[in-house]
Amino acid sequence: MRYLFVKTLVIGLLATPTVFAEEQESFGEVVTEKNESICKNKFTQELFTQQRIFSSTRNGADNRRIAERKIEAAREKYNLTASYCDAYNELKSFNPENLDRKPGDAQFN
């Protein structure tokens, strides 16, 4: 009786990983939840990068204007959602429609 129990247990343990592996393959890519702490660090780094681009006189007016618009869009997104992940995604993916000067923009010579 003990032999049968142990044998069933061992076979069950050996068969279980293959069942889970088949299920995992059907789900595809594993996606983690938003982690605000990680996003906050990434957002901070990218915001500093954009700020350096904006502040450097070595960059052309267009590059500086794009950085300015990205920073503005990320701040607006954060104000709406209070999520660093959303703000980081906006900062990375934002492309301004045009670079025409708007009220409040910095003036580049």
Keywords, separated by commas or semicolons:
signal; 4 helices; 109 residues; mainly alpha; elongated
User: In one word, what is the shape?
Assistant: elongated
Estimated share of beta-strand residues: under 5%
Mean pLDDT: 78
**Helicity level, as a percent range?**
over 70%
**What is the β-strand count?**
0
Query: Class by helix and strand content?
Result: mainly alpha
Rg from C-alpha positions? 25 Å
Order of helices and strands: HHHH
Signal peptide: 1-21
Keywords: Signal
Explain what the structure shows.
Residues 1-21 form the signal peptide. Keywords: Signal. By secondary structure, the chain is mainly α. It has a domain at 36-93. Helix content is 71%, strand content 0%. The chain has 4 helices and no strands. It has helices at 2-27, 36-55, 61-81, 84-93. Helix 2 runs antiparallel to helix 3, helix 2 packs parallel to helix 4 and helix 3 runs antiparallel to helix 4 (84-93). The longest helix has 26 residues, at 2-27. The termini are far apart.
